[in-house]
Amino acid sequence: MSSRGPVSIGRFLEPVGKTGFARLADRSRRLMRLGRAIEALLPLEFSGRVRVGNLSSKQLILFVESPEWSARLRFHLGDLKRRLAREHGLEVAQVGVRVLPPERPQPRRGRPRLGDEAARALEGTATSIGDEKLAAALRRLARHARPKTP
Q: Which of 29, 54, 84, 119 could hold 90 in an S-S bridge, CB 3.0 to 4.6 Å?
């Protein structure tokens, strides 16, 4: 790590000698352009539902969000291949359609809430134990479940 401070990641992505990062950035840009071209060639109902996964050795892989969209897209693949060749000069021998796994829900942010039943259990435990320090700590914890009154 340099003591000069942060370094822009753009420095590593510059195509000087086509480093691994530069090749990766170039490929990413090409796939993004291809994705925009494919979206323009497909009917509007597919807008935002189809993503380019890969393009290699004349095989195009597309990702969709559900099996339903996969079935719908398959009906348009012949026309898509013809239009890619005619309008973009891209000869694709095969198009694979894959369904993306569902996105996991984002974890809740913020403090977890203590329920009333848990607070009552903590208070009951605090009254039944002999250790006053532990009992006081349990009572403080139980207070977090109760809304503060003015």
A: 84
pLDDT tens per residue across span 119-139: 889 999 999 988 999 999 999
CA-to-CA distance for 81 and 85, rounded, in angstroms? Answer: 6
The mean pLDDT value for 93-122 works out to 84
Beta strand 94-99 pairing with 50-56:
unpaired
- Exposure string for 12-35, b = 16+ CB within 10 A, e = fewer: ebeeeeeeeeeeebeeeeeeeebe
Does the pTM surpass 0.70? The reply is: no
Same domain (yes/no): 26, 87: yes
**Residue 79: helix, strand or coil by DSSP?**
helix
- The answer as to whether 9 is a domain residue is no
pLDDT value at residue 9: 58
Give the chain's domain count: 2
* Residues 36-59: tens digit of each pLDDT: 999 999 999 999 899 999 998 889
* Residue in the block written with tokens 């694979």: 96
Residue type, position 145, single letter: A
The reply to whether 128 and 75 lie within a common domain is: no
